[in-house]
Amino acid sequence: MDLWIKEVMNRLNRNKADVLFSEHAAKDKNLDTEDVDNAVKTVMIGKVDEEKSTEEKERICFKNYFDKKGQTYFVVVEYYPDFIKIITVNKKKGKY
CA 71, 72, 78, 84 torsion: positive or negative? Predict the structure, then answer.
């Protein structure tokens, strides 16, 4: 894992931190309650997708596959001092 990702992730414990949604993720993505729960779970337990993470804006992408839905969630976040903000959520069918 890249050093900058480790440094950003060490700022907050992602399992205990508050997870908030940006306006884009909350309004434009048409997420239902299950999608919201899955997005938050992805932030807490998902794997880091280094290819989709961007160092310039310090945005980290987490991915997690949910068996029951048969979908992989990609969640891009920014770390703040007191919380983690979800920038966007993408869903794809199948396991990636």
Answer: positive
Dist CA 84 CA 13 (whole Å): 10
Q: Which residues contact 89 (CB under 8 A, 6 or more apart)?
A: 25, 29, 31, 35, 39, 73, 74, 75, 76
Rg of the chain over CA atoms, in angstroms? Answer: 13
Backbone φ and ψ for 36, nearest 5 degrees, come out as: -65, -45
In single-letter form, the type of residue at position 77 comes to V
Is the pTM for the entire model greater than 0.90? Answer: yes
Q: Over its length of 96 residues, how does the chain's per-residue pLDDT go in tens digits?
A: 899 999 999 999 999 999 999 999 999 888 999 999 999 999 999 999 999 999 999 999 999 999 999 999 999 999 999 999 999 999 999 998
The tokens for 29 are 């993505």
